[in-house]
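Homework help board

Subject: predicted structure for assignment chain

Our instructor gave us this sequence and asked us to write out the predicted structure in token form, then describe one feature. I got the tokens but I'm not sure how to describe them. Can anyone check?
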Amino acid sequence: MKAFETNREKIHWIRIKEGQLCYWNGEKELTFAEMQGIITAVNFKDEEYQGRKYVEAIFTLYFESEKYLLSVNTGSGYFRSFCNYLANADLKKPILLRPKITEKEGKKSYSIFVQQAGKWLKAHFNKDNPGLPELVVLEVAGKKIYDNTAQIEYWKYWLIDAFKDDQPEIDDLPF
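My token output:
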């Protein structure tokens, strides 16, 4: 009898850092411009870093029988743009995702672009197709602050619904 199970599935944890996908291989941090796979699930986890609380979305992707967990802060532009592109994807088919940082007039914008079947997907919600909850404009210390809480909640519920388990409920136990 073994004290530890050594035949466990290997899981690769991926995060986004400065517009790149990052993976720690046990020796050093490797960065990649893009990754691909099929998303099979998404979970949300409450986190805290240096006293700041936030919610992390953890996307489970499979590529060539390898399991990857991509963690994305739900309060980030990465999360919102990723969801906006995923809304136009066939979620049962593989995707390629590419994070990117763009800068316009000194302001940085964070995105995750999605490609499927060799074509870059368009954002589901845009100027021509509005539909996301409105940003709430607050004034704090004389500065305008945009509260996107309603949009984040919209995308969280959309993901939960999109990746819910379609297995039938079992009413009767087999024993």
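Reply (TA_rk): Your tokens look well-formed. For the description, you could write something like this. The first strand starts at residue 11 and ends at 17. That's the kind of observation they're looking for.
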